[in-house]
From TrEMBL:
<dbReference type="InterPro" id="IPR014016">
    <property type="entry name" value="UvrD-like_ATP-bd"/>
</dbReference>
<dbReference type="InterPro" id="IPR000212">
    <property type="entry name" value="DNA_helicase_UvrD/REP"/>
</dbReference>
<feature type="binding site">
    <location>
        <begin position="218"/>
        <end position="225"/>
    </location>
    <ligand>
        <name>ATP</name>
    </ligand>
</feature>
<protein>
    <submittedName>
        <fullName>DNA helicase IV</fullName>
    </submittedName>
</protein>
<feature type="region of interest" description="Disordered">
    <location>
        <begin position="150"/>
        <end position="175"/>
    </location>
</feature>
<feature type="compositionally biased region" description="Low complexity">
    <location>
        <begin position="163"/>
        <end position="175"/>
    </location>
</feature>
<dbReference type="GO" id="GO:0005829">
    <property type="term" value="C:cytosol"/>
</dbReference>
<keyword id="KW-0378">Hydrolase</keyword>
<dbReference type="GO" id="GO:0043138">
    <property type="term" value="F:3'-5' DNA helicase activity"/>
</dbReference>
<keyword id="KW-0347">Helicase</keyword>
<keyword id="KW-0547">Nucleotide-binding</keyword>
<dbReference type="GO" id="GO:0016787">
    <property type="term" value="F:hydrolase activity"/>
</dbReference>
<dbReference type="GO" id="GO:0000725">
    <property type="term" value="P:recombinational repair"/>
</dbReference>
<dbReference type="GO" id="GO:0003677">
    <property type="term" value="F:DNA binding"/>
</dbReference>
<dbReference type="InterPro" id="IPR027417">
    <property type="entry name" value="P-loop_NTPase"/>
</dbReference>
<dbReference type="GO" id="GO:0005524">
    <property type="term" value="F:ATP binding"/>
</dbReference>
<keyword id="KW-0067">ATP-binding</keyword>
Amino acid sequence: MPATPAHPSPTTLGSPDDVLAREQAHLDRARDELRRMRETTESLDASTAADAFNAAYLDLVLARRVASLQDDPRTTLFFGRIDCRTEHGEETFHVGRRHVSDDHGDPVVVDWRAPISTAFYRASPTEPMGVELRRRFGVDRGRLTAYEDERLDGGAADETDDASAATGAAGSTGHSAILAAEIERPRSGPMRDIVSTIQPEQDEIVRSDIATSICVQGAPGTGKTAVGLHRAAWLLYSFRQRLDRSGVLVVGPNRAFLDHIGAVLPSLGEVRVRHATIDTLLEHGRVRAQDPTPVAALKGDARMARVLHRAVWGRVARADEAMVVPRGSRRWRVPAYDIQDEVDALVARGVRYSAARELLAQRLAHLVMLRLEASGDFPGEAAQGAIARSAPVTAYAKSLWPPLDPAGVLFRLLSDADALAEAAEGVLAADEQRLLLWDAPPRTKGAARWSTADMALLDELADLLERTPSLGHVVLDEAQDLSPMQLRAVGRRASTGSLTVLGDLAQGTTPWATDAWETAMAHLGRPEHELVVLDRGFRVPGLVIEFAARLLPAMAPGLGAPRSVRDNPGRLDVVAADPARRSAAVVAAVRAAVTEPGSVGVIAPDAFVTALSTALARAGIPHGRLDADHGDDDDRQVELVPASIAKGLEFDRVVVVEPAAIAAAEPDQRTGLRRLYVVLTRAVSGLTVVHSDPLPEALAG
Ligand SMILES: Nc1ncnc2c1ncn2[C@@H]1O[C@H](COP(=O)(O)OP(=O)(O)OP(=O)(O)O)[C@@H](O)[C@H]1O
């Protein structure tokens, strides 16, 4: 690849202002080239296609391409540069969100996902990867305001432009003021991409081969979600054709979370990735009931897969009667043992129940055909289909291999003790079977009030009947909370693709939360996988993480807190308020928090949310209110967040209300402290804890 002629020398000559001026000139040139690429595409005429269908398709492709070539004046086309020594000599590459080339096809900006860009993210003084100089740019509203050089060939870092607060020589220390400024930048609106500052250990995950399923364990704020989304973008770039066909899916815990992360992939130019919550993914009807915890836990247990397998395949009857098929003046008789051989062969083939059922009628017809032919009658191929569809054959097939649907099978299991006992014999104990049975069974499957746990069972049944189509890649976030049956459901959606599984065992807040990734990955169908641990914390500042980490020994012994990479130690205020003054103290904390730019999250026990919303409104503080079904559409500065949905979210400043009540709302102490740990680790710069009840002992320190 020829060098990008940014300027005559790959190193930086002249004063910092000269350097910045040359880089700005390169940016102006890149913008011109992007405009030229867009105009060229706009001038292409879809009507030259062979026919109307192809013309419409081409039109769509061109419109998409024009959209992808839009220039966003609020940002720059590149955020970094590497000067390399390659077999072609000295070369310079500017790295940006998308590829820009000149009219000879030579690169002006290389895509961050292109192989050459790997060195921008991973080169280090010990392993320079051919890079002599790495330059990062400070950016403000579409202009380059600063740069920072890091020499990887042992030379001294050049001067940098001191005109901006975000500059400073990275030198050989690896410390980057531009990275620090990016991490400290106040959050507003939904999560943003981290493409200009992906760290080496994160980049290794992002660029892992498509065939590899990866599990990432990481403490709060270590960038798991960010890494998973950038991995999806990288895979789509590197394996576009394959993944455009098979699809990529991101699964998160709830709607508020999806709204929080939903802008990242579009900002990277990837608009065709589906985002779903685990509940919408496994939607087999409406959830109208809630199981008591022991029932939900049992329904989520992997042993249920065996029970369901038996419940379906146990419906295939033994052939103990001959099949008699009249044809013309004769009646053809196929003995039961011949039919049983066919049934056994079908069961052994491993096809899904309904597909095998379709085959059965053909097999039965074939047995009749053999008899016809043996008697000298050769009725031709078409006759087999007619025999397969004939009333005696379909009736026989139905009695042997009844048509099933998921709701029907589950309805029978949960309402009929004998049917359940037959399927669960030797798998579930008698008291477990009793637990599963409905106290007052509905009269029909249509009247059944399914629970969330039932959805995973229905999904398993649907897959036993008909194969679930597999996607090319699935990113599963907050995976620690899924039950084994839910994990199986996600896994089958990547049965021929691969998975990126993200989570933190210490943040598991369901009674069935995973306590070992090996187990979870086995349920996902990926016993062979790569496990990576991220431990550098980008979100939570030192003071706040130290406070939250007091909980770890009590609820996740063995798991460490992240090492905060933040320069800013953050701010921690613990406010003890008189019970009658608690709401007033919360309002005061929020008033103080809104004086600075950036988002504010008020995280409270779910039961307090309505009253707090009223208190904030009375105090004239506009706020959004998140719940499991929606995020905040209006992008307000203050969000009121029930503790049960705070997972995965972040705010510049967080006010946590009554930690003891947050912990007490969970079914057991361990889960309560884990919920609290999640809640306390949402803050980027400041945390205020307001309490009237004593703090939980583990937190009081
Ligand atoms: N390399 C990076 N450069 C800049 N910011 C980063 C980087 N990595 C992560 N971040 C930021 O750190 C914050 C936390 O990231 P993220 O939400 O992905 O963490 P997480 O591990 O999923 O956290 P949690 O377990 O709490 O859900 C985000 O604001 C993200 O943009």
